[in-house]
């Protein structure tokens, strides 16, 4: 269907994306219980070290560059 519409209306098949905002978004997590916070930080550190965050980015952003992922390195 797209092909037929593109021929009839002269629609361009290529789209150029322009990033208007910084692609990084920072979040804050707050804990009432300090022991839970410490446990969370240990597991988050392990998750980062094992490459879990890089895997998530590569799954949902397959064209992301290694340069953009370098801040996830242990």
Describe this structure in words.
The protein is mainly alpha-helical. The protein has a domain at 32-74. 50% of the residues lie in helices and 0% in strands. The chain contains four helices and no strands. The chain has helices at 2-9, 34-49, 52-60, 66-69. It is elongated, with a radius of gyration of 20 Å. The termini are far apart.
Task: Furnish the topology, listing elements before pairings.
Layout (H helix, E strand, L loop, with lengths): L1 H8 L24 H16 L2 H9 L5 H4 L5
Instruction: Outline the biggest β-sheet.
Output: none
Shape: elongated
Secondary structure tally, helices? 4
User: What distance lies between the first and last C-alpha atoms, to the nearest angstrom?
Assistant: 47 Å
Number of strands: 0
Mean pLDDT: 79
Q: Spans of 5+ residues with little confidence (pLDDT < 50)?
A: none
Q: What class do helices, strands and sheet pairing give?
A: mainly alpha
- What share of the residues does DSSP label as strand, in percent? under 5%
How many whole angstroms does the radius of gyration measure?
20 Å
Q: Can you give keywords for this protein?
A:
single chain, 74 residues, 4 helices
How would you sum up this structure in a few lines?
This protein has helices spanning 2-9, 34-49, 52-60, 66-69. With 74 residues, it is mainly α.
